[in-house]
Design goal:
The complex is a heterodimer of chains A (315) and B (448). With 315 residues, chain A is an alpha/beta fold. Helix content of chain A is 47%, strand content 13%. In chain A, strands 3-2-4-1-5-6-7-8 form an eight-stranded mixed sheet, with helices on both faces. In chain A, helix 7 links the parallel strand 2 and strand 3. In chain A, helix 3 runs antiparallel to helix 4 and helix 5 packs across helix 12. Chain A is elongated and about 65 Å long. Chain B has 448 residues and is of the alpha/beta class. Chain B folds into three domains: 82 residues, SRP54, nucleotide-binding domain (Four Helix Bundle (Hemerythrin (Met), subunit A)), CATH 1.20.120.140; 190 residues, P-loop containing nucleotide triphosphate hydrolases (Rossmann fold, 3-Layer(aba) Sandwich), CATH 3.40.50.300; 138 residues, Signal recognition particle, SRP54 subunit, M-domain (434 Repressor (Amino-terminal Domain)). Helix content of chain B is 55%, strand content 8%. Chain B has an eight-stranded mixed sheet with strand order 3-2-4-1-5-6-7-8, sandwiched between helices. In chain B, helix 1 packs antiparallel against helix 4, helix 9 runs parallel beside helix 10 and helix 16 crosses helix 18. Classes of the chains: A alpha/beta (315), B alpha/beta (448). Chains A and B meet through helix 3, helix 7, helix 9 and helix 10 of A and helix 2, helix 6 and helix 9 of B. Bound molecules: guanosine-5'-diphosphate and magnesium ion (MG). Magnesium ion (MG) binds next to helix 6 of chain A.
Amino acid sequence: MSLFSGLKERLRDGLKRSQEYLATGLATVLEADRPIDDTLYEELEELLIAADLGAAIAADFTNRAREEVMFGTVTRADQLRPLFRRFLVDALKPAAQPLNLDARPSVLLMLGVNGAGKTTTAAKLAASLKGDGRQVLLAAADTFRAAAIEQLETWGTRIGVDVIRQAAGSDPAAVVFDAVKAALARRADVLVVDTAGRLHTKSNLMDELAKLRRVIERQCPGGPHESLMVLDAPTGQNGFAQAQMFHEAIGLSGVCLTKLDGTAKGGIVVRIVRELKLPIKLVGVGERVEDLKAFDADAFVDALVPADPAGGPRE
Amino acid sequence: MLDSLSARLTAIFDRLGGQGRLSEENIQEALREVRVALLEADVNFKVVRGFIDRVKVRAVGQDVLKSLTPAQQVVKVVHDELVELLGGSGHRLAPAAHPPTVVMLIGLQGSGKTTTAAKLARLYAKQGQHPILAAADTYRPAAQDQLKTLGAQLDVPVVDDGRTPVEICRAALESAAARGLTPLILDTAGRLHIDETMLDELKQIRAAVKPHHVLLVVDAMTGQDAVTVADRFNQAVGIDAVILTKMDGDSRGGAALSVRHVTGRPIAFVGMGEKTDALEPFHPDRLASRILGMGDIVSLVEKAQQNVDQAQAEEMVRKLREETFTLEDFRAQLKQVRALGPLDQVMGMLPFGKMLKGAPKELSGEQADLDRFEAIICSMTPGERRNPEVINGSRRQRIARGSGSSVQDVNRLLKQFAQLKKMMKQFKSMEGRLGKLKGLGGFPMPRG
Ligand SMILES: Nc1nc2c(ncn2[C@@H]2O[C@H](COP(=O)(O)OP(=O)(O)O)[C@@H](O)[C@H]2O)c(=O)[nH]1
Ligand SMILES: [Mg+2]
């Protein structure tokens, strides 16, 4: 339940605070009496680029807008706002998918580059699932970064979820093996596995991840039931390479987009959704336990291109 | 790789090639490609706009239009301009007149401050100084433990006494002074640049311990929002220099240009890995090449490292550079082609490799051709392999017979080898002109 409340409000908050950087421009760009000309298209394109959608998608959306204008479906500048919103919502609607929690235990693997928010998201997710009445376990499979285990344990204590761990520096595959065994023995509903941050370009570390996957598969056929790449909203175009390479290496089931409480819009997910057909399963909007939400395409698009200029972030 | 800027510019100018003189309009088209390349590298669009204007003035002012190699010429202008913007007056972490020197790290959550604090401490220690760390992140669970663990590994003391970050920093300053340790490096909690309360805390720390150097830690993978982040931190707290982290990945790092642009502050260091020794001084020319996708010779080495043993790969790159590539090497190369990928693709990974015209089609990896070429080279004497110029008509016939191929095949091979050598020469002179990519040392390598 908690996953579905208040995303709009949280995104709006962040948006309000970032008004002078992105959205004020938008209101003027799309004023009704402006002529639809090259300057306008350029400004629109730049708005999308500013949100990290990337030059190619921005150009694509802008060209589609040109077509609509050419065919007369759009005649005024202020009609472009709903048009762009439609493009974005169409692109992102299929991405809103719930977590797959049917199996018992459901094993959820959290992965991504360093500092993206994996541990925090793992903890928030565990708390939320526990709140729904599920029996949850956490696995501290980041044995590499200093005090990563302690970080997860502190969360575990805070949210009242047991953390399966070994000593720092031990084999993450062994931790995962133990954790799955514990989840089976305790008949837990969900096991959330926190892994070490790794850059997608390091093949040995990607192999390690594939190994974790195999360990889970072997003990728990059908698992991992989710392999979620955690991506933070400030990430630029490299986010696509991340998703692509993690997907190639172990097969992702979705993305968690964190740090949407800042001014970054996380627009790179549009490309990830479009080209890799990956859903966005969760979004992080802060550092507190309750700051994890289900992805909602409309709310997300609202933050990118506010629906109406008056209600938008203008002061 | 194939869509790197130089390749795209070459395509544009190739298309225009037949028309003779290039117009300002052509330059305009080239600059559109430059714009896209910079945007893909995550340079902020506003920064790109100003940049393109400057490049245009320079490109038009120069002899790009008359140049035989306009694509390279444009790339050079862009590259030079980038180096100039990224470089500028470097920030020295000058020691304070009255020690301890205080260095304060600030930045967003997850940007890499704690790891960087430890890396800096190690760098200072290596230079014979006696650093001390302050663990002032009291918010993120186990952040203090993280720094203490790293400090213990490095044998650098870590102060975490105090209830609040300000108290901890004050205590650390007293401790540093009392024990005669310098510099004092402050690790602060990650925070959003729009969180006023948290920014106030940084201001309080700043007022309490008066750091000599405030360093903004920025993730190299940051996108367009880098300008907002850098600007807000700079306005609120004030920064002296920037550290760019996670540069061991494959992000282009264009955010550095954005940050440099909005703050006017130089980039002091780059983080190149998770371990505490992975902090390097910043090289504007390397980053410029990287932003433009020119540093791809590094990908070649990396790819080679994954598939071929390293010594061999390095040897090959060296020979390509030094033009001491013989038919013998060519044969060894053919053997590796299957592992490395078609040679034309390998060439595509070299800076400007794609620009070099007429890469032999037969080298693109047709199995039959590879086999035949290998057989032909096998039929040559060692002397012939080293010095193919001696291969005259009768030798050609002998080689053809010995390898079960035709004289035409032998001719084709020799012609292509000559072409390849010519390409190498062009490559080298182009590289020489730009004077880039001298050391591979600072480039990303897989963790060993
Ligand atoms: N503002 C904000 N900070 C977050 C969010 N998610 C994680 N963080 C912070 O980002 C930092 C890195 O998170 P962590 O979970 O340790 O990243 P990991 O290295 O991927 O495990 C921590 O300071 C977290 O508190 C979020 O949604 N919003
Ligand atoms: Mg972690």
